[in-house]
Predict the 3D structure of the following.
Amino acid sequence: MALDAVKALVFDVFGTVVDWRGSIVREVDALAAALGRRVDSSAFADAWRAGYQPAMQRVRTGDLPWLRIDALHRLILDGLLDDFGWTVLDEAARDRLNRVWHRLDPWPDAVAGLTRLKRRYVIAPLSNGNFSLLTNLAKRAGLPWDCVLSAELFRHYKPDAETYLGAADLLGLAPHEVMLVACHPSDLRAAKAAGMRTGYVARPDENGTGRSPPFEPHEFDCTADDFVDLDRRLGGED
Amino acid sequence: MALDAVKALVFDVFGTVVDWRGSIVREVDALAAALGRRVDSSAFADAWRAGYQPAMQRVRTGDLPWLRIDALHRLILDGLLDDFGWTVLDEAARDRLNRVWHRLDPWPDAVAGLTRLKRRYVIAPLSNGNFSLLTNLAKRAGLPWDCVLSAELFRHYKPDAETYLGAADLLGLAPHEVMLVACHPSDLRAAKAAGMRTGYVARPDENGTGRSPPFEPHEFDCTADDFVDLDRRLGGED
């Protein structure tokens, strides 16, 4: 089987490893309560996330210089706070809220599944999140990565091919020796085009809809319900 | 105390975390036995290591293009095998031997000390070893890094300032919020010049001499006998 050559698994993070939406909703609700305000925290989280792809596109086209996700999140947040009428927040409070992305909670299976997968593979995030964000997030959540890989190391955001190829190169592996694990078909398609193997994990609750985006049967090398299931499907023993 | 601001500890690896000399001696002795040869494995290890600084200097001056330590180790090794009369080794055997640097054993206190330090600090290697070497070494040895930092990420070998400054930047920290831990005064002096805090750990057995290189009293922010002692001196509780 072609997957016998796989030596490392690299993981999309926002949505695939961590529940960004639930985490942000909880922090925004707590902040609103502390301020004595009402807020639609789900709409807030969705709007923050919705600004993410357009912000990366501005970097990709050169409209913005290279900026970390921390800086892009902050740009989006400042606009949001205006839209939601939260202009009362001062610089320190904005910075603290912006760093909620360093404090996202993992899906319930993530730590157990990664711990199993780590027995037989090098495991690392491969995220558009900046290096310190991914490092802080992993430390807080107890994600047992062997190393941290970030788009920041390549100054190219996924789905640019440089990010996938750069990750394999740093690991000292050929692309076909690396599998990207993600819940987003678009990310997996770009990894596949770069020569990587692909592992799809369903995260139907990522956007609060209970629905996953569509993809073709057999489009990816492996599909799984969660990380523990992924380990079993790759031959890991219980 | 100035050390209250320290949030991350980054570690020199060869000599400071792992016993490169003892590890190479063991593998070279085993290889010699398998080949039915005699070899002065200590001299072999020392000669291999002695080629390291000059090889990095050739990269630094532009005499060689950017090359990973794996490639520099191999250049040195091929010369050594000629010198030691081991030209019998084929390509696969040379590659396997060259990757002994991915299989170095940690000093006895390293895993326990790092595990303690990780409770209060972000911990990472900051080594001239390439990224995959450091990742593979840590996985095999059980070093509990939060992330892996390598000179390869900056394409500058220590003691170039770019490596220290680049590490702090990736961690999202100012240099004075990062402490370099090393057994080599020259490495610590370069980190200090770049604005980092410095922690000296004695490794008198690194070169098989039982002697450590000299340095001035109070030259570094902290001096310790090993990593467990370092944690205690930084205020970690037993």
Summary: Chain B has two domains: 2-19+104-233, 20-102. Chain B is about 45% helix and 10% strand.
